[in-house]
Structure formats: C-alpha cells, structure tokens
Amino acid sequence: MALTGLQIFKLLPKTNCRECGFATCLAFAMALAVGKTSLDDCPQASDEARETLGAAAEPPIRLVTVGQGEYAVELGGELVLFRHEKTFYHPTAVAIEVRDDLPEAELTERLHAVQALSFERVGITMRINSIAIRQTGSDSASFVKTVELVQANSPLPLTLVTQDPGAMRAALAIVGSKRPLLWGAAEANWREMTALAKEYGCPLVVTAGDLAGLSSLSEQVTGNGYKDIVLHVPAKAAGDVLRAATAIRRMAIKKRFRPFGFPVLASVGDNRDAYLAALTAATCIAKYASMIVLDTVDPAVVLPLLTLRQDIYTDPQKPIQVQAACYTIGNPGPDAPVLVTTNFSLTYFSVGNEIESSRVGAYLVTVDTDGTSVLTAWASGKFGPEQIAEALEKTAVGEKVKHRKVVIPGYVAVLSGRLAELSGWDVLVGPREAAALPGFLRSYTAN
Amino acid sequence: MSFELHREKFPCRISEVEIGAGVAGNGQRFLQVGGASTLPFLSFDGPSGHLPVIGMEVWDVVPELWPAPLENIFGPVAGDPVEWARHCAQEWGAEFICLRLRGADPELNDASPEACATLARDVLDATGVPLVVLGCGNDAKDNVVLQKVSETCAGRRCLIGPVTSDNYRTIAAAAMVNGHLVIAQSPVDVNMQKQICVLLNDLGVPQTQIVMDPTTGGLGYGLEYTYSVMERVRLAALQGESSLALPMIVFCGFEAWRAKEAKTGPTDGVVQGVAWEALTAGTLLQAGADMVVMLHPEATRVVREHVKALAGGEMTL
C-alpha cells in the first residue's frame, strides 16, 4: 500500500546529503510519496528501506530519457489515467521512421523534411523528437552507414531499430555516447540487448507479442538489473493498440504492477491510408503512448498530430495563454473598432475568429489575465478598469486609430464608467458572447 | 509477479437510445446508440455498447466564404439541402443526417418555421436515414421553429435541439408530444450538463429520449476541454450518476473547419482540413462520443473506418 511522506521519511538515512537533488530527506520523502522520484536516487538508502518501501519506492511509471542535451526527450513519469485527475506530464514523443535501404539523396531529403516539421503555436514550438532508423536487411553495414548519415545531418535523438545485437553493437560504436533508444529486446535476444543497453547506458525497448509475454520479459530485464526500459506490443488494429496501452497504463497506476511501470512505445502500423494512420496515432496520443513512430513527413498530417499532443498534454490547471498585446485583424483603418478581451487562448481565438468572419478590420487588445476567461478574470480582479486602461496605454493602440472608443465584453458592462474615467476612452458595451460579434461589428461600422 | 489482466467493472450502464423510425412503406432505417458499460472500445472490461455512429451535417444556407476543400465537394449541391442530404446518405455513407437550420436566424434569412419544417420532412423522406435537426441559436426563434419541425415530422423519432437550462420547456414538450428525442446541451461543464438532464427528467422526458451535447471544441481550439468534460461525464455515469448515463453527440465537422489551420493548410494529397476534422472526431471517440457529426465526405469515411478498426483486432490481452 502507498506510504505517506512521513512514513517514508522514517526509513531514510536523514543525513540531508542532497545527493538526490532535494534539499532535505523530508523533501525527498514527500516527493517519493507522490511518485515523483525514485528511491534509486538516494545513494544511502538501506536495504531495509528498499524492502519496506517496495512498490512505494518507485514512481508508478518510470521516467526514461532518450538522447542528450537540448533535444533530449523524457518518456513516462505519468501519475494518472485521466488528464482531469491532475495532468499528463511528458508529451508523447513523436519519432519519424527512416529505413536503411533508402538511397542517400532520399535520406537527406527526408531528414530535411523532418527538420522543417517545426510549428509555432500559442507561443510554443512543436517539433519531432526522434529519428527511428530501421534495419531492413541482414546486412549491418547499410544500417551503420545510415546511422552515421542521420547523426551527421540531424540533431534529434536516435531510435535504433534492429533485432540483431551485432548490428546494434556496430551502431552503438558510433552513437553509443548519445543515449539513443535501442529497439530492441525480445524473447530471443534480450540477454545480449540488455548487456548492450547496460554497457552504453541507453534506454531499451522491450517487445513481446502479448501482455503476459511482455510482463515476463520486463521482469527478466529488470531482474537482470536494467530499468531504463520502454514497453512495446506490436499490434496492428487500432483497437488492439488502444486496449494494450490502456491495460498497461491502468495496471501500472492502479495496481502498481511493477513489470508495467514503464513508458509505452506504440507503432502506428503500416497503414497505407494516411488519414487512418493519423487516427491511430491520435488514439495513441490520447490513450497512453509515451512515444509513437510515424512513417510520414507530410505537414498536413504532422501539424494536426502535434496540435493534438499540445491539447491533451496541456495542464488543465494552467490554461494556454496568448501574449498580452494589440492584435491586428483584417485590414483596420484609422476608424476601425478597438476591442478588448483577456489573454486566455480560447477567449482570444473565439473573439478573433468572429471578428475575422465579420470581415470588419479591427484591433483586438488582450489583457494579461493569467490566461483566464472574461468572467473569471473579472471576478478575480485581473480584468478590471485599471488593467484594461493600462493595456490600452501600454499597447499604444491609440496611435493606430484616430478615435477613442473601446468595445468591452458585455459581461463586464459594469466597469464602463470607471474605465472611461481612468483611460479617457469612450466605452462601448459589446455582446456577451463572441458569436454575436459579427452582427455587432456590422452595425458598429454602419454608424 | 504473475500477470493477471486487471478488468474494470462499473456498476452502471449508458442508456440505450433509438433514433429514427420507419413509417409504412418508406423503409426508413433507425439507429441504436449508447448502451456502454465500459469506457470506449475497452471490450475486455465488458459489453462496450453500440458502436459510435457517424453522420453528416447539411446546412439550409451555405456560408459566404467556404474553404476550398468544402466548396469543391459541396459546390454542386450546396444550394439544395435535400439533394445535399441525399448525397450524404447515398453516396457518402452518412448513417444519419444533421440538418442545421442556420437560415432561421432573424439576423440571416429569418426563414419561416413552416419552411424549416417542410425542409426537415423533405430531407427525411429523401434520405431514408435518421435525422438530427438543429436550430439557429436564437432561443425565441428556435422555440417556434423546432416546435413546427416536431409537428411536421411527428412520429419519426428525430433528434431535436439543442435545449439548454435557459431554454428547454417548449422544445422538449413539442418533441415529447410528437415522439422525438432532444439534445441536452451544456457549455463544456459537467455540472451544467447534469442540470439540464435533471431538468428534462423533471419535465418527464425519459432517459431513452435524451442525447447530451457537451459542446464541441475543435482540434487546437478547446478540444481538450470537451475531451476532459466528456471523460468526466462518462466516468460519473458509469459509476452511478444516472442523470448523465446518456449517449453524447459531438459536432466535429462544424467546429474543425472553423480553425484557421483547416481552412488554409495543404490541399494536394492529404488535405489538412480533412485531417483536422478526422482527428477532432478520433479524439472525441476516445472520450465517449456516441454520435459524431462530420462535414467532409473523406473525413466521414476515414472516421467510419477507424471506428471499425477500434472495434476490431484479434489480440487476446
């Protein structure tokens, strides 16, 4: 059963040596209690502590790092089954597959295409996290050559896909110091692959055809002293992928079933229909894959997937914000309306979209309300006359128009008087809902 | 540690709802939705209910500005909603039609209740598939329009709405008298969803005649809010909150194509707008969507295929 922080603290050395990265043993114990760290990080933990703490000494799902430096990506470390229970912490890593039988020109072209798959959305850069190099023949020379080429042309962490320990060793001789993901170990080769993973300190994918097999293989590898592993069940149908990943996540979180306490890698399958492959990938992002491997560099597929990943992995407690600024919508002239709203991304997008669809050029000033919506921000004093007046001043929107009329959301009509006093602008009360803006703006410009 | 699959057992089950009814001779099909006692597609836990059904949206008035991928497909039929609906049902495999009566809006065409009702009946007769009818969003107008639609399509078990806690009596009463079902809408909020469902129960609307609309956010534009509210609603229902034990409908096509990225993305090869729409639907299927309303035929097709793939598979867990 889970122990409290204080119960765990009693079992720790109480030396406050800080080697675990926490200031005190008590802080470490508290973090341990909520599964945010592992007892492995305490160099002085006694055997007795390890035994007593048992499952409680490990987070329910281990955090595994692939790659190094700026592009390193963390897999796993999740604590809940549903994002509303807290949040999902480590966004599904997206890898793009390249085969080692690709001619060199095509390979470099694909790597450039991957590098171009970088998108800016609400102030966050979304990109691909790894290149997965798949060995296609029995010849390790072309595999090694591809690994060399990819390494020279891409900064992304590598995923090495081969079942052959010889080819894996040859590739590790080149990139072994960069913490690639080794994919990987199966029933037939797990001893050699585990030895390689240990030797080079690289995370290892463990694959079995069903959950029972995966459970026993995971136990064998961890029993062998290696814990940086990633679980994989090669399933084809989207339903199988979903059910396997769900069963693994659920047993790890709810049952603390140790063999499943690791991140999951999902393969999207060799689906020739790009939309169906994208739908399977989307299912994996929503339901429990810490890493997916795609076989496309089409931005029309990748952008929607990365956007979905951003949606699902947004902390429900911390709404996405847009920058507080003056946004230009359409082609506003000096008589164009000036509207204010909050910097909650959804509020901004709804208001902005409606202004756009009205085809009336306008200036939209967003006030920094820590990403809260109009009513919430108003109730918490973040969208009051002072803040709005300050935003009008700061964004210098007054220099863009020759009038002094500002439209405020209908829900905060009550602050009109004070805002007019503070800012010197005439205050017009707009509609309560963004959907009514096109009608409002058309009659605004008519007058 | 020996492996034993953990199965989740919930005490309750989502209500089974039937939409559409045949009248003598016209061979109209009907659909059953709901009935799940597990989270979506987790058939190893128990009976996961009827598969989600995929319908298509038809508008009485076409927008002034339509993204090219929609214009290209619907251009030839867009001026004729009955023909458009017939295409959806017969060419593009829509399992139901969702008629959005935008033109009833006093700000738009202010179409008369009679005209709206006749259109709804014509669509029903022309397609042979069940019908969802949406008002224009103006409460006062929707009350008269949807009442008229209810009367004109009496006995055909249409799904009509939406109704909200601020405006439900007239529409729900008309729907009940004429043997239809109602869409109970909430603004992405579990408590308000419960409130409108309880209000409908108090009015005497049976559980078998309500479908919930948690309000759809499109991909990148609030999808995660809808997703989590739907997961919470579905979990609460399965754990015993009977007022929420109802199927859910989501409007993926309409919301997805409002996104800038859907309107402007690549259109040769994979169409970004179609992917945007399909992924909105695919994600909400995981949150418990039972009825999915699409717009683009290609997105409709792939989501239908995807539902089959989610239901299928041969792996023994």
The pLDDT mean of chain B sits at 94
Query: What structural class should be given to the helix and strand makeup of chain A?
Result: alpha/beta
Strand order of the largest sheet of chain A: 3-6-7-8-9-10-11-12
Report helical residue fraction of chain B: 25-40%
Strand content of chain A: 15-25%
Please report which band the strand proportion of chain B falls in: under 5%, 5-15%, 15-25%, 25-35%, 35-45% or over 45%: 5-15%
Tertiary shape of chain A: globular
The CATH class of chain B: Alpha Beta
How confident overall, as mean pLDDT of chain A?
92
- Rg calc of chain A: 27 Å
Low-confidence stretches of chain A: none
| Uncertain residue segments of chain B | none
Q: Tell me the CATH architecture of chain B.
A: Alpha-Beta Barrel
> Greatest interface and its residue counts?
A-B, 61 and 60 residues
- Total strands of chain A: the figure is 17
Shape category of chain B: globular
Terminal-residue CA separation of chain A: 70 Å
CATH class of the largest domain in chain A: Alpha Beta
| Cα distance spanning the termini of chain B | 17 Å
The number of helical segments of chain B is 11
